[in-house]
Structures are given as structure tokens and as C-alpha cells.
Amino acid sequence: MEREDDPQLWDLLRHSRVPEASPFFARNVVRAVRSEQPSGSAVASWFQWRRLVPTFSVLAAIVIAVFTLHSLRDDRAGSGRAAIASVEVPDAELATDIDVLSGDDDSDDAPLL
After folding, report:
1. Alpha-carbon distance 29 to 6, whole Å?
2. What is residue 108's DSSP assignment?
3. Band of residue 36 on the pLDDT scale cut at 50, 70, 90
4. Which residues, 6+ apart, have CB-to-CB distance to 22 below 8 Å?
5. Which residues, 6 or more positions from 3, have their beta carbon under 8 angstroms from its beta carbon?
6. What Cα–Cα distance (Å) separates residue 40 from each residue in 45, 46, 50, 55?
7. Beta carbons of 84 and 73 less than 8 angstroms apart
8. Phi, psi (5° rounding) for residue 64?
9. pLDDT for res 109
10. Staple partner for 89: which of 65, 82, 95, 97, CB 3.0–4.6 Å?
11. What is the pLDDT of residue 104?
């Protein structure tokens, strides 16, 4: 744009002040940026609801699945144990030997020899 196009505008522009940056401009910008950043450490950021809820939901599902599978396995093994335990042994001496063998591992093995 030339001066001849709009002389009044150029006269106004000549009398206007030139904007200058404040001497504390950089400090003010850094202060504004720091105030926008979330405070706290990276460890504290893990303890937010948007992360805790899904984490505990998955953990609860895993715990429920493990206990369910464990109880199903015990039910199957327990039914087999009941059938074995209900078998009658006609020989009392054989029953005594089985009791000794199934005893505590820390017991003395001298009666077996």
C-alpha cells in the first residue's frame, strides 16, 4: 500500500505508538506455561480414576477366573477322593500299612523297614 492510496491512514499510523515487549515478557510466558502443566510426579499420575477403574476391573476379573477354575478343579478331585475313600479294605494289616505310608513326611520311617 502506498502513501498516495490513503494519506489519512498514513498520518494516523505516523502518530501511533510502536508496540514494545515488556522487559518481563519471557518470565511471564514461562510462568503461564508452568501453571498449565499438571503438578505432581509420574507416579501420582497412575492414581487417577480414569486409570484405576479399568485396572481394578481387569484385576477383579482375573481373580474371579482363578478362584472359579481352582474350585472347579477341587470339585473334580474331591469327587474322585470320595470314591477312593469309600472303598473298604478287607485286610486290617494292609490298611495299617497304608496309614503309615500316608503319614507325615517328617515322621520316622523305621516301622517300614
Report:
1. 38
2. -
3. confident
4. 28
5. 10
6. 7, 11, 16, 21
7. no
8. -65, -40
9. 57
10. 95
11. 55
- Greatest extent of the chain over all pairs of C-alpha atoms, in Å: 128
DSSP-assigned letter for residue 34: H
Residue type, 95: A
Selected residue with higher pLDDT from 94 and 48: 48
User: What b/e readout covers 44-77, taking b as 16+ CB neighbours within 10 angstroms?
Assistant: eeeeeeeeeeeeeeeeeeeeeeeeeeeeeeeeee
22 close to 28: Cβ distance less than 8 angstroms: yes
- The CA distance from 3 to 9, in Å, is 8
DSSP element (H, E) containing 113: none
Q: Do the beta carbons of residue 92 and residue 100 sit within 8 Å? A: no
Per-residue model confidence (pLDDT) at position 68? 92
**Residue 56 pLDDT > 90:** yes
Summarize pLDDT for 11-21 with one digit per residue, the tens: 888 887 778 88
